[in-house]
Specification:
By secondary structure, this protein is α/β, with parallel strands linked by helices. It is built from ten helices and eight strands. Its EC number is 4.2.3.153.
């Protein structure tokens, strides 16, 4: 399981650079513009320059409306600015067909510029609260559109968490559907250390965090701390060892 950490500024990215050996992907977002709020192109570029070259940079393009052309241009801006992973929050798409149309435009815009970049179709565990596409439809959406990964996050950051809306057994179904479609499965949404056992057991490929590695657990008012990143990684590794041992014992 890969660890994705989301700084919201160049200063926080420099903090992530200090903890680079404990994380796998540096994710650029702007939390005050939403769950998957897009940051500025120059911030993506500066963060790309600030973190080690071997650490891929992910960038969100926002909690987007159903405007395929607009979103494709935004995605191109992210990859031109240095993002290896381009994430799109399908906030304004109410049907799978709308989501596929948006993501097909993104895939073409991104891959025409950089074929090795990865495109992530992101939905929301709390989709019922905002009226967007069903979370379990995301793997099929991503597959039909030619994406590389399907992701779930939470849209409304009010203290509720991923498993509050999509419990572990349903997240396991999401991961299974993604893997059957040849996609990476990413999960986020106020994930904490206590969730790592379940995330490991269901085969999650990427776990995304911010609040869990910020002081006071505050994604908005707190700052990312290197020792919290290190502690989160240590628990990830512990859970991975425990799961491997359990699988070996069962076989």
């Amino acid at each position: 399981m890969l660890l994705l950490v989301s700084p919201d500024s160049v200063e926080e990215a420099l903090v992530c650079a200090k903890a680079a050996r404990h994380l796998d992907i540096v994710d650029v977002k702007k939390p005050d513009e939403g769950s998957l709020g897009a940051n500025f192109p120059w911030v993506i570029r500066e963060i790309r320059d600030a973190v080690p070259a071997d650490k891929p940079v992910s960038a969100t393009v926002g909690d987007v409306p159903y405007k395929p052309g607009t979103v494709a241009q935004a995605a191109l801006g992210a990859v031109v600015s240095g993002a290896t992973y381009v994430k799109v929050g399908l906030y304004g798409c109410t049907t799978p067909d709308q989501a596929v149309e948006v993501m097909r435009g993104v895939v073409r815009a991104v891959k025409d510029h950089r074929p090795d970049a990865l495109v992530v179709a992101s939905g929301y565990a709390d989709a019922h609260r905002i009226g967007c596409v069903n979370p379990l439809a995301l793997p099929d959406v991503a597959h039909r559109a030619g994406c590389d990964a399907a992701m779930l996050d939470t849209a409304i950051k009010d203290g509720s968490r991923l498993f509050d809306h999509v419990p572990p057994d349903r997240c396991a179904e999401f991961v299974r559907l993604a893997h059957e479609a040849g996609l990476l499965a990413a999960l986020a949404g106020s994930v904490r250390e206590r969730d790592l056992g379940a995330l490991t057991r269901i085969g999650t490929d990427i776990v995304g965090v911010r609040g869990a590695v910020c002081e006071r657990g505050d994604r908005d008012g707190g700052r990312i701390q290197p020792h919290l990143v290190a502690a989160f990684r240590a628990e990830m590794d512990r859970q991975a060892r425990a799961h491997a041992a359990a699988v070996a014992a069962a076989s």
